[in-house]
């Protein structure tokens, strides 16, 4: 009899497919449902033919409720991004989670509280403040000139950069303001308390859009600092620490206490099944060749007709309508990323063209 696993989150495909390679019977509870998702049973929110907008349609509560119906029937639960990361998240007590449980994920996802703890413990973080009105925001900008705005809850995710005298509209308070540090974005990844790799992050308009793994041009002294973070917060399983560098110092900007977007680039570089590593807690492996992951976003409202091929993942259903700014697919390769991205765009037609969708 096969072991059973449940994978829960916005996009479960990477972990689901790893578990299928191990022979698991896998339940997927997710927002997205790409054609290359190999789960035995799929529960999802998206309309495969009309993707809509994630921010408007995503319903964490419904995902968790569905997971609750399945959790007692599985041996292991794997948690990816998008659940237990908000102030209003329902926090179940599950004892079969691989890695941090929902309560721990929720605690770490309270950015303001986590930033305060990091600062009190002596770690370098950008200056920050919980902003309750425009007057407080103006004062913060008077001091720093430029800042990034984040939601008070969540790990990673969307941020916006603003400057003093910018015309700011439709802000919902309270919000978290953080000193803007110019520079490239990086992450450090751990399995348990073992450092695995540094990554260079690809950020597009304030949103995570991929990474380069491994990224070996960073000093080993950072590893000790981030290992202390993992130990202090008693984190388990797969975890990531996002950081920036200024004047040779590391500045922590986020802790991601669940399975990361670098999951597959680590798997490919190490030629190891990461689900197996997380289950056995055997992190004795090395990364070899560098891989690049790049999420492709729609430049306009499009109709997709993407063909399945090497290096392309999260493939939408034929003739799916995808809104401007929403993800189309994911490329993971060692080289020729740009040509693959361009080929994807060529296979998508702007919605509303006169051609029939069957001819696209």
Question: Explain this structure to me?
Answer:
Helix content is 25%, strand content 29%. The protein has 360 residues and is α+β, with helices and mostly antiparallel strands. A hairpin with a 2-residue loop joins strand 12 and strand 13 (249-256).
What brief labels describe this structure?
25% helix, disordered C terminus, globular, alpha+beta, 360 residues, eight-stranded antiparallel beta sheet, four-stranded parallel beta sheet
Task: Write the SSE topology.
Elements: E1 4-9, H1 13-21, E2 25-30, E3 41-44, H2 54-57, H3 60-70, E4 76-79, H4 102-109, H5 111-120, E5 128-131, H6 134-144, E6 146-150, E7 160-163, E8 175-179, E9 186-191, E10 194-204, E11 207-213, H7 221-232, E12 238-246, E13 249-256, H8 263-270, H9 274-280, E14 291-297, E15 302-304, E16 312-313, E17 321-322, E18 327-333, H10 337-346, E19 348-350
């Amino acid at each position: 009899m096969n072991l059973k696993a449940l994978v829960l989150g916005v996009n479960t495909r990477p972990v689901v497919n790893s578990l299928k390679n191990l022979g698991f019977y896998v339940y997927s509870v997710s927002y997205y449902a790409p054609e290359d998702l190999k789960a035995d049973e799929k529960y999802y929110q998206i309309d495969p033919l009309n993707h809509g907008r994630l921010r408007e349609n995503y319903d964490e509560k419904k995902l968790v409720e569905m997971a609750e119906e399945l959790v007692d029937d599985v041996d292991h639960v794997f948690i990816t991004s998008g659940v237990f990361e908000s102030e209003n998240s329902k926090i179940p007590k599950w004892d079969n989670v691989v890695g941090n449980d929902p309560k721990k994920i929720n605690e770490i996802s309270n950015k303001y509280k986590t930033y305060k703890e990091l600062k009190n413990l002596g770690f370098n973080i950008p200056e920050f403040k919980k902003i309750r009105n425009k007057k407080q925001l103006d004062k913060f900008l008077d001091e720093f000139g430029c800042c990034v705005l984040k939601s008070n809850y969540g790990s990673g995710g969307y941020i916006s950069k603003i400057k003093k005298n910018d015309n700011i509209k439709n802000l919902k308070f309270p919000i978290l303001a953080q000193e803007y540090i110019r520079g490239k974005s990086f992450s450090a990844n751990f399995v348990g308390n073992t450092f695995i790799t540094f990554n260079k992050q690809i950020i597009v308009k304030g949103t995570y859009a991929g990474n380069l793994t491994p990224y070996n041009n960073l000093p080993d002294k950072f590893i000790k600092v981030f290992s202390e973070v993992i130990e202090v917060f008693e984190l388990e399983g797969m975890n990531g620490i996002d950081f920036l560098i200024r004047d040779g110092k590391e500045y922590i900007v986020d802790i991601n206490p669940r399975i990361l977007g670098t999951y597959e680039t680590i798997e490919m570089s190490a030629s190891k099944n990461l689900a197996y590593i997380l289950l056995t807690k055997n992190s004795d492996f090395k990364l070899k060749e560098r891989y690049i992951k790049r999420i492709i976003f729609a430049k306009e409202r499009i109709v997709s007709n993407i063909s399945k091929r090497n290096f392309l993942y999260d493939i939408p259903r034929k003739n799916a309508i995808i809104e401007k700014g929403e993800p189309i697919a994911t490329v993971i390769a060692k080289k020729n990323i740009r040509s693959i991205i361009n080929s994807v765009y060529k296979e998508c037609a702007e919605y509303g063209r006169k051609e029939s969708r069957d001819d696209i």
